[in-house]
C-alpha cells in the first residue's frame, strides 16, 4: 500500500528539509513551530497506534466497536497484516497453520466478547464428521480432555475477516515510527518514516492527543554462551535460535543420523522436541535428542494451595500463566502487589512451563524408552568445536560431574526477550518522553495501561504487549491479554470523552454487527 | 471460568434469578404432572424452588471456591459448572422430601422437579457460555463480578 491514508489534504510545508533535525532530536517537548521549521508536514489525527501488530489490532477493533470513526484513527506500522510478525515467529518455531497454538478457545482475536469461541467455530466448520470432537473437547477441558486450543490458521483467517470489517487498510499508514515526543500545548507528535518515495518528505508527523505503543518484542533473546559461539566461530548454521528460520536443520536431520541439543523447556522447547520426534516417526530421521534443563522439575512443586504439577523436567500448566491471571483471583492478587513482590509473584505463576498434552507425553515416553530422547540437568560451562564438525556442549551438574555432549546442531528454545533499551522508539520514550521502567525492566504502566510519566496536558499515552510485562497484569503477551488491555484503554478514552463506553446495549449491538459481518 | 468469590456470588444471583426466573416463567406452563393446576399455583411452587436453588447455590459456591484453591489454575471449568447439577439437584430434592424447603410441598412430583431443575440448570449454564459475555464484555475479566 503506497497511500498515506491522509485524514485530509496534505498540509502545506514551507522551508526545511523534512528531516529530523538535531534541534528536534535534542528537544524533549516539541512545539508546532519546531516541527514546521524542520519542513516536516503535520497531519492531525486524534488517535495513533504505533506497531500495527496484534496489540494495535485488538485496540483498534475495540475502538471501532465503541463507535470511533476510521478518520480518527491511524495505525503506523511496517506490516500490512496485523499477524505478520506473529505468523513469522510461529512458522520459525515450527507452528504452521495446522498446528495448535497455546491459546484458549475463547481468546478470539477477531471478537472482543470471546463468543463464539474457536472450538464452536471449528465444530461448525468441520461438520458433520468433525462436529462433536471440538465441542466435547472444550466442554470436558481440562478434566477429561486437554485444554482445547485452536490451529494457528483459524486465528489468521478470523483476523482476515475482521480486518476487512473494521476497515483496517483505510487506517493503516505503512512505515516505521522514528520517535514519539510530547507537544507544547498538549498531546503528542509521532514522527513517522513512510516507505521511500511515497511522500514528498522523508518524514511526516502525526499530531495527536492519544497514542498507543504496541511494538511487540524488542528482539530475540539468545543464550549468551550460544551467541558467543556463533560469533566466535561464525557458525549460524549449526547453532540456531528456535525463533529464527532454521528449517535447514530439519531437512538435514532427515538425511543424516544426527545428535541435536535442545535448550529450553518451555512451550517452544516442547514444540521443537515434538517436531524432532515427529520427523523420526514420519520421515525416518535417526535423530538423537539431548534436552538440557537448567532447572529440572521432577514432581509437583509448592504448598497444597499453590501446587503446580511437574514431571520429567517440565513444569506443567495450561497456558503461560496460571489461568486465573487473565481474569480471576490471581489477577486480583497481582493488582494489589507492588515492586519486587509483584515481579516475584508473576514469575511464580509463569516462568518456564509447558502444557500437558497427551500426544506429547506419548512421544516423550517412547523417546525415553527408545533411548533417543535424553535429558540432562546442569549449567552449561562452554560450547566449543569438537571433532568431525561436531559442537560440544560441556555441562556441569550440581554434584560437580561434567558431561560433554557432541552434537550436530544446537537449538536455543529459551524464548523471546530483549530489553526496552534495544528498541529505538522505546529508548527514546525513556530518555525524552518521561516514561520509566517497572521493576522488571519493561515500561511502567498504570492499571489502565497508561504509560506512567508520559502525560501531556490532555494527551495520554498507552502501551500494551510484552513491553509492559511486570505491571499489574501478568498475561500481557497473549491474545486475551491484548484484548483486556484494549478494553481498559477504550474505557479510559471513554472517560476522557474520546468515545462512548461499551455498555450492555452497545456491546450487544456490536456483537450483532460482528455476527452479520457488518462493516463498521 | 476463573471466578473470584464476589464474582461467584453475583453471577449465581444473576443467572438464578434473571435467567432461571425467566425460564421458570415459561416452563411452568408445560411442566409434567401439573395438569389442572392453575398457573398461579404452579408459579408459587416453581419460583420457591428457584429461590431455594439460589439460597443453596450460594452455600455451594462457598464450598466450590474453597475447593478451587487447590487447583493450580484457580479456574472452575465449565465441566464442573455443568455436572455440579447432580449434587445440587440431589440435595435440593432431599430437602424437599424432608419438608425442609418452606412452602414447597414434599409431595412435589419427582418428574416436575426434575424437568424444572434440569432445564433451569442447562439454560443458565448455556447463558454463561456465551450470551453473558456479549451483554457484559468485562465480566470474564472481573472474575464474574457484575458490579
Q: Greatest chain-chain interface?
A: A-B, 37 and 29 residues
Helix-strand makeup class of chain A: alpha/beta
SSE topology string of chain B: HHHHH
Globally, the shape of chain B reads: globular
Q: Which of globular, elongated, flat, extended, rod-shaped describes the shape of chain A?
A: globular
Strand order of the largest sheet of chain A: 1-6-7-8-2
* Structural class by sheet pairing and helices of chain B: mainly alpha
Mean pLDDT of chain A: 94
Low-confidence stretches of chain A: none
Any overview of this molecule?
The complex is a heterodimer of chains A (about 525) and B (about 150). With about 525 residues, chain A is α/β, with parallel strands linked by helices. Chain A has three domains: about 20-85 and about 155-220 and about 420-515, FAD/NAD(P)-binding domain (3-Layer(bba) Sandwich), CATH 3.50.50; about 100-150, no CATH class; about 225-315 and about 355-410, FAD/NAD(P)-binding domain, CATH 3.50.50.60. Chain A is about 35% helix and about 20% strand. Chain A has 17 helices and 20 strands. In chain A, α3 crosses α16 (about 480-495), α5 runs antiparallel to α6 and α11 packs across α14. Chain A is globular, with a radius of gyration of 25 Å. The two termini of chain A are about 20 Å apart. The mean pLDDT of chain A is about 95. Chain B has about 150 residues and is mostly helical. Chain B has one domain (about 5-140). Helix content of chain B is about 65%, strand content about 0%. The longest helix of chain B has 30 residues, at about 40-70. In chain B, about 35% of the residues are buried. The interface between A and B is medium-sized, with 37 and 29 residues.
Amino acid at each position: 500500500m503506497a497511500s498515506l491514508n491522509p485524514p485530509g489534504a496534505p498540509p502545506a510545508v514551507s522551508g526545511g528539509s523534512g528531516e529530523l533535525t538535531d534541534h528536534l532530536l535534542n528537544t524533549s517537548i516539541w512545539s508546532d513551530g519546531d516541527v514546521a521549521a524542520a519542513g516536516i508536514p503535520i497531519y492531525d489525527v486524534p488517535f495513533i497506534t504505533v506497531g500495527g501488530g496484534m496489540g494495535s489490532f485488538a485496540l483498534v477493533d475495540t475502538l471501532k466497536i465503541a463507535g470511533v470513526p476510521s478518520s480518527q484513527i491511524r495505525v503506523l506500522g511496517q506490516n500490512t497484516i496485523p499477524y505478520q510478525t506473529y505468523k513469522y515467529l510461529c512458522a520459525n518455531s515450527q507452528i504452521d497453520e495446522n498446528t495448535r497454538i497455546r491459546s484458549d478457545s475463547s481468546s478470539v482475536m477477531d471478537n472482543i466478547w470471546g463468543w463464539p469461541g474457536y472450538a464452536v467455530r471449528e465444530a461448525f466448520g468441520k461438520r458433520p464428521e468433525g462436529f462433536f470432537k471440538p465441542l466435547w473437547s472444550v466442554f470436558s477441558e481440562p478434566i477429561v480432555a486437554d485444554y482445547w486450543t485452536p490451529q494457528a490458521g483459524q486465528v489468521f483467517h478470523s483476523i482476515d475477516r475482521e480486518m476487512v470489517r473494521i476497515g483496517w487498510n483505510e487506517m493503516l499508514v505503512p512505515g516505521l515510527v522514528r520517535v514519539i515526543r510530547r507537544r507544547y500545548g498538549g498531546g503528542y507528535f509521532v514522527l513517522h518514516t513512510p516507505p521511500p518515495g511515497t511522500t514528498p518528505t522523508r518524514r511526516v508527523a502525526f499530531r495527536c492527543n492519544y497514542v498507543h505503543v504496541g511494538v511487540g518484542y524488542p528482539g530475540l533473546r539468545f543464550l549468551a554462551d550460544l551467541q558467543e559461539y556463533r560469533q566466535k566461530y561464525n557458525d549460524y548454521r549449526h547453532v540456531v535460535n528456535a525463533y529464527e528460520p532454521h528449517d535447514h536443520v530439519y531437512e538435514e536431520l532427515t538425511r543424516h543420523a544426527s545428535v541435536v541439543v535442545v535448550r529450553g523447556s518451555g512451550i517452544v522447547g516442547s514444540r521443537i522436541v515434538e517436531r524432532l520426534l515427529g520427523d523420526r516417526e514420519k520421515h525416518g530421521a535417526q535423530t538423537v535428542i539431548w534436552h538440557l534443563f537448567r532447572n529440572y522439575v521432577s514432581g509437583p512443586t509448592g504448598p497444597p494451595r499453590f501446587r503446580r504439577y511437574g514431571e520429567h523436567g517440565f513444569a506443567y500448566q495450561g497456558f503461560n500463566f496460571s489461568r486465573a491471571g487473565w481474569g480471576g483471583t490471581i489477577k486480583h492478587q497481582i493488582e494489589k502487589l507492588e515492586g519486587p513482590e509483584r515481579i516475584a509473584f508473576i514469575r511464580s505463576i509463569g516462568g518456564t512451563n509447558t502444557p500437558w498434552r497427551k500426544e506429547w507425553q506419548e512421544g516423550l515416553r517412547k523417546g525415553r524408552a527408545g533411548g533417543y530422547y535424553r535429558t540432562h540437568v546442569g549449567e552449561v560451562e562452554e560450547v566449543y568445536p569438537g571433532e568431525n564438525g561436531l559442537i560440544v556442549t560441556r555441562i556441569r551438574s550440581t554434584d560437580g560431574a561434567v558431561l560433554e555432549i557432541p552434537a550436530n546442531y544446537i537449538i536455543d528454545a529459551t524464548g523471546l526477550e530483549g530489553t526496552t533499551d534495544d528498541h529505538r522508539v522505546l529508548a527514546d520514550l525513556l530518555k525524552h518522553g518521561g516514561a520509566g521502567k517497572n521493576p522488571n525492566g519493561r515500561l511502567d504502566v498504570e492499571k489502565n495501561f497508561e504509560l506512567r510519566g508520559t502525560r501531556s496536558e490532555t494527551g495520554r499515552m498507552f502501551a500494551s504487549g510484552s513491553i509492559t510485562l511486570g505491571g499489574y497484569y501478568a498475561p500481557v503477551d497473549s491474545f486475551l491479554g491484548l484484548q483486556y488491555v484494549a478494553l481498559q484503554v477504550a474505557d479510559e478514552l471513554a472517560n476522557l470523552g474520546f468515545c462512548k463506553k461499551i455498555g450492555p446495549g452497545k456491546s450487544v449491538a456490536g456483537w450483532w454487527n460482528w455476527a452479520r459481518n457488518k462493516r463498521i | 471460568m476463573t471466578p473470584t468469590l464476589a464474582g461467584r456470588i453475583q453471577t449465581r444471583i444473576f443467572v438464578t434469578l434473571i435467567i432461571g426466573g425467566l425460564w421458570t416463567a415459561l416452563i411452568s406452563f408445560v411442566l409434567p404432572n401439573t395438569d389442572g393446576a392453575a398457573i398461579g399455583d404452579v408459579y408459587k411452587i416453581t419460583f420457591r424452588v428457584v429461590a431455594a436453588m439460589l439460597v443453596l447455590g450460594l452455600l455451594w459456591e462457598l464450598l466450590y471456591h474453597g475447593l478451587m484453591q487447590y487447583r493450580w489454575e484457580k479456574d472452575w471449568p465449565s465441566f464442573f459448572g455443568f455436572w455440579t447439577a447432580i449434587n445440587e439437584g440431589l440435595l435440593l430434592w432431599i430437602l424437599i422430601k424432608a419438608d425442609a424447603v418452606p412452602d414447597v410441598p414434599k409431595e412435589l412430583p419427582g418428574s416436575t422437579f426434575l424437568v424444572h431443575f434440569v432445564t433451569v440448570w442447562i439454560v443458565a449454564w448455556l447463558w454463561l457460555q456465551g450470551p453473558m459475555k456479549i451483554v457484559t464484555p468485562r465480566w470474564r475479566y472481573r472474575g464474574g463480578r457484575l458490579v
